Protein 1
Amino acid sequence: MKERKTREIRIKNLRIGGKNPIAVQSMAATKTTDIPATLRQVRILEAAGADLIRIAIDNMKDLEALAEISKQTDKPLSVDLQENWKLAEAVAPYIHKIRYNPGHLHHIERDKTVEQKVAWLIGIAKKHDLAIRVGVNCGSVAPDFLEKYPTEEEAMIQSAAYHCKLLDDLGFANYCVSLKDSDPKKVIDINKQFAALRPDVPLHLGVTEAGLPPEGVIKTRVAFEQLISQGIGDTIRVSLTVPFDNKGDEITVGRQILDDIEHGRFRSVPDFGDKKLNIISCPSCSRVENEKFVDLAIKVREMTQYAKEHRLTIAIMGCRVNGPGETDDADLGLWCAPTVVNLKKKDELIGTYSYEEIIPRLKQEVDRLIAAKN
């Protein structure tokens, strides 16, 4: 394997980047306000060997729960604020790292510039000795960059690079970057390009919405094998659609992949996206609107087995944060609300259906797409 060249950053007592071992992390899947259930998730991830645990914070009730949860674990904690970046100051005393998405900074206080908002976030990070992850995802790229660059991949890379410069200019170096997509080929490509552009910046690797095992494991392995062997990647997240009690599998799988890469055990991999059915689904996390989401993903995979030789992409998303945008590129997309599922064809909404109605309705659309392609 090629040697990694990134600088070291610190997250509580965890060091990533430089010559440090690649850290393995995951995210609690339960509602953060359900303190016993979330603590159970934390214990599952601790037992599996997680180096870092991430928790979603969407509102003040989540924040109150986080204050209690943080007292009961010694693991470094990260928070994912999504649109609610203004909660950074309130959560800072209880955590060690903040992930912000450049594509979500325009949602609140539109009279302030992105640069002003980032400067405020970095001020909080400096005051509380926090690390920052600049997390750029497909489906939620900052609109200004999508307008400026011809492809989503280039917009992602340039968005990340721009925010790195913002942090550099603010005199803040305790940060890492992630560039994620549900397609392992794109993950490989954009991370290679970014690493060439900024070889000093530690990278958080992941195939977002990798989906159900074993396909989700294979997609993730494809990306990690090709990147880590080239000296790219300092911390990893395996994003699998699994029941809450199996959340530790993300850590176990991640460590197995790292061990295989270290010992030269590489696997032959299929060709994703060229000829066959591709089902993507997000990992269960605390933003999931209904726990039926995991069962729905399984049912979609079972129902579509008859179409496995057709070049179709079906995306199943569990919440309103990632659902609307990250289904836009799929042939058919489902994003789950608390009591209904929204069915889309690319960026067009077909309709809204109950969890009981959605599978037969989805099959009708799959059949239409197959007939049209034929």
Protein 2
Amino acid sequence: MTKAINVAMLGYGFMGKAHSNAYAKLAHFFPELEHRPKLKVLCGRNEVKARAFAETWGYESVETDWRKVIERDDVDLIDIGTPNNTHAEIAIAAAKAGKWVACEKPLAMNSAEAKAMTQAIQEAGVPNLVWYNYRSVPAIALAHQVVQEKRIGRAFHYRATYLQDWTISEEVPQGGATLWRLDQDTAGSGVTGDLLAHSIDTAMWLNGAITDVVACTETFVKERMHQETGQVQPVLIDDACMFLARFSNGSMGTFESTRYARGRKNFNTFELNGADGSLSFNLEDPQYLSFYEHTRQDTQSKVEDHLTGWRKIHVTNFEHPYMDHWWVPGCTIGYEHTFVNTLADFFEAVENGKRPRPDFEDAWQTQKVCDAVLLSAKEQRWVETGVDA
């Protein structure tokens, strides 16, 4: 027996589209799930744009005030796809109203907000999700499986990069509906919260808690015109960030992110090196996971010298994570499908009485690392993250 769950989508931007697509496709590819999302209401500040978005995606109604959405009895799930500075107030109100809550990343402007949001969610006891969708890339999920199978052995090094190039021009403005990610008052931080939050979440999912960091940040273009005021104002977010990290398992980490890497569009990579093997992944070639095997798990013996080398695994077989729900082996899936996979994991966990992951608690831990990174860069010293090991 299936049951409808009425979804309210807050926001009609990039993430509003990605999330709406996931709700629309979920039942087609994960028909075993009990819940069936129903696109009930689209909420956005610009009514004309909201109505156009709602018509395109098939939402039944439109609101311009998120508070009215939360008050509605015919809404079960609030999906927060709005700018970062609105997340906390909306999520806390939704939780108190007994709604399920899904929220875009980063969870909050800082860890204090994230803590308050997490506590409100836990007190209400409502199902919750944070859209760290890269966990649901099949190749990254396979990497997690390989680590859980102890094929890497003792971890020594984790290195991650997340590079883009879309803000290099000094003519790019800041703020407003389209470029709020460059406005500190709206975004909270720059690449640290926008890009490195993904890298940090993935790293801690694969390799455990990050306990200490030392960082440096840079803002290359110091002033930009603000779209809303028309005035040239200081740019206060970080354009680039690099940090070193220590993990609770004793391994070392390096992280780098920038929006000034000419030619890099969404270059999100990681490599994990251990005593028994290594893993490597690049989001711009997402159907592959590279694996170096030094010790065979079946015999715990060293791999024959003449066969050692990196193995490039095409993650499209039915035995690979999620792929039995999609196409035949050899046919790849892409960015949009990671949101469908994330949503499927969420509903499956709820239906089986398990903790959905990643949730607000996970995202709060990531927020702690982001805060520690920014504090370290400001004070030029090692900072403890306070992440729960």
Protein 3
Amino acid sequence: MPAPVCFFNLVLSLLCRLFVVWRISVVNVKSKGFLSLFLGVASAIALTTACTAPAPTDTASNSATAPASSTAASPTTENAAALKPVRVQLSFLKQSIDAPLIVAINKGYFKEAGLDVTYERGFGNSDTISKLGTGKFDLAFSDIYNAMEFNEKNPNEKIKAVAMVHNRAPFAILTLKANGINSPADLAGKKLGAPAGDGPRKLFPLFAKESNIDPASVEWTTMEPKLRESFLLQGQVDAISGFVTSALPGLLKGGKTMDDINIFYYNENGLDFYGNSILAKSSFIDQNPEVVRAFVKGYLRGLQDVLKDPTAGLDAVMASDDSKLMNRDAEKVRMEVALERMFITPEVEQVGLGGADPKRLEKTIQQTIEGFQLTSKPTAADMFTDEFLPPLAERQLPPASDRQPLQ
């Protein structure tokens, strides 16, 4: 009820009660003092009654307010329910090179396309592919070369790449200059270390062939991934194989400088492999083509943002680290390597982000067939499709003038 009407009714009620009290007092009470007291009590009763009475219900007001509140909440609820859950696994622990994914999530690129993207850490490329094959995840970041081996063993659950994330693989042999290994040929007769499922280790026979050394002349020591750099620093092995983005920060953290380390990249020694890609099971691709297309587009938008401002990308990854165990200096080293060798290359200038050169891809596939001794003979078309990539104009490298330096 409006405030003026409420006040009028209150006054009218008070006057009526006072009149009744006055009439009673004139007949029965002769004491003016008692009459005053009685009138005071009556007034208090009237005011109390008016103040404690149930508040009038304003139907018009409620009907205007409630729907407004409901309308504000409904789209959020409806949109959340409409989003398609997409489970993604990383190749290993979350690192700065995963910045495109984190940035795309933070900026809502996936949600704009109707996807609710969540991710979990990986435990190495082979393990990631295995879990993708079981259906535990919808998409994953790993390499096509391990996927080739998986496909041969699981012909009914084949995996395919839908975008090349790293134009060059970070596969490498790392050693300390103090060990006297100054070229790949010097690895002959040495002790190398790596986890059993390490991709570069599995491809080492091809690396050895290209380097004119006998792969059998090398002795391998197996350890957990987290101990790889320690084995080299402690002199338990002469060199290690692995992703340079994983191994290099550990060596630098162990007190070494870039001047203390020799790095032999596979793609500089006859094995011009691609790095990690966005992978999915063929069955998932067939059943969810629009989901795959939307995810690839969102990820590549995030990648373009990271290339423009890698410092912001690095900061986004650090902010997403709930464990607070990530080291920014180490992650900066990874990002520097990725920018210089994996994300920005002359080929990417031509084929665009996410693309691949068919001839180069075919050659590396044939090398993998030999290196892994596969009996199946997959082609480039079996392992990679570009049909889910956005148009080339939408996935170009940002101009060099738009790329800020990493801080």
